[in-house]
């Protein structure tokens, strides 16, 4: 039985993410226990970690730092033990060096880059809400078997910028190219919401549950 720690730090869409992970684990044929937690001891021992995030970068970063021992436990598991990790929406943005929403706020700096406001141009509204095609820029196990022209669900006003090309796994186009997924070693992050992306999202989560970096 694998433990998937779904981080509860007051900034995530936890229940829909937990439901989707349970379905994904079942479809992957992987016996997994989804644990909603901010307990550093559980996180440090987890087999996989998912960091969701809804809201503003600064608020989510503050909540993460306010939870005693949480960042240290995440670093122990993800950076030292190389536990497979997925960040979702703002949970992905927190992987960056810094975010510029509501001031300049440090991120985890696990995948260098900055998070800044999207400027899609005339005819496009911000926030970006809705379905867009995922354009896979390099093969990655978490993005395998998605079919032709996969569409996923976005809801955001800010996104990753200035990430190294080698760290970009997928983009989308919304008046301009937007980084949709980042990946480095055992770390993967999506700007979109796989738990809201129906069949494609479940495939991505199933891939993550089975992923052995």
Overview of the structural elements:
It is built from 6 helices and 14 strands. With 213 residues, the protein is of the alpha/beta class. The chain has a single domain (2-210), classed as Class I glutamine amidotransferase (GATase) domain (Rossmann fold, 3-Layer(aba) Sandwich), CATH 3.40.50.880. The longest helix has 15 residues, at 14-28. It has an 8-stranded mixed β-sheet with strand order 2-1-3-4-14-13-12-9. It has a 4-stranded mixed β-sheet with strand order 6-5-7-11, covered by helices on one side. It is globular and about 50 Å long. The chain has helices at 14-28, 40-45, 57-66, 70-80, 90-93, 198-210, and strands at residues 2-7, 32-37, 48-51, 85-88, 98-99, 105-106, 114-117, 128-133, 135-136, 151-156, 158-161, 168-173, 177-184, 187-190.
Give me some keywords for this one.
213 residues; Rossmann fold; 28% helix
Principal-axes shape call: globular
What structural category do the secondary elements indicate? alpha/beta
- Write down the Rg: 16 Å
Q: Looking at this structure, what is the CATH superfamily?
A: Class I glutamine amidotransferase (GATase) domain
Do you know the CATH architecture?
Answer: 3-Layer(aba) Sandwich
Number of helices: 6
Low-confidence stretches: none
- Termini separation comes to 18 Å
Q: What's the structural blueprint in terms of helices and strands?
A:
Layout: E1 2-7, H1 14-28, E2 32-37, H2 40-45, E3 48-51, H3 57-66, H4 70-80, E4 85-88, H5 90-93, E5 98-99, E6 105-106, E7 114-117, E8 128-133, E9 135-136, E10 151-156, E11 158-161, E12 168-173, E13 177-184, E14 187-190, H6 198-210
Parallel strand pairs: 1-2, 1-3, 3-4, 4-14, 5-7
Antiparallel strand pairs: 5-6, 7-11, 8-10, 9-12, 12-13, 13-14
